[in-house]
Design goal:
single chain, alpha+beta, Nuclear Transport Factor 2, Chain: A, 3 helices
Length: 144
């Protein structure tokens, strides 16, 4: 395989990983989503709190989603414009755009928020896992 073929295969693997991961999130399978992180993984999203460890990620997501308990909303996460940069230590740094689409009964879908996400992906037993994720909402970039 050439370096281009290797990167193409890695890129496709990353896209598949993200598709599976976010279907778990959108289905509110927070345990399944957290299992896509390393045991000591970190997940930081705005306006939420930094979560460390799989158990911490599950707890943060449950708390964050409580606000939707009485809101019949379907949330879909869309990742796009993924840049994958293999690192010397074998990890892969990815930076990409994310949009959340919110749909409520009888209403048109609404986009929001729009974010930039930075991940560090690692391999464990041949599979990709998130070591860390930082989600930054675009609207907060103007808060400086």
């Amino acid at each position: 395989m050439t370096a281009t073929q290797d990167l193409t295969a890695l890129y496709a693997e990353i896209q598949h990983f993200y598709a599976r991961q976010m279907q778990l999130m959108d289905g509110r399978d927070f345990e399944g989503f957290a299992a896509t992180f390393t045991e000591d993984g970190e997940f930081s999203h705005t306006p939420g709190q930094l979560a460390r460890t799989r158990a911490g990620i599950v707890a943060e997501l449950r708390e964050f989603h409580r606000r939707f308990a009485q809101d019949p909303v379907v949330r879909r996460h869309w990742f796009n414009m993924i840049v994958a940069e293999p690192q010397p230590d074998g990890s892969v740094r990815t930076t990409y755009y994310a949009q959340v689409i919110n749909t409520r009964p009888g209403a048109d879908a609404q986009v929001g928020p729009s974010c930039v996400v930075t991940d560090v992906l690692v391999r464990a037993e041949g599979a990709l896992l998130n070591k860390s994720r930082q989600v930054r909402q675009d609207r907060l970039l103007f808060a400086h």
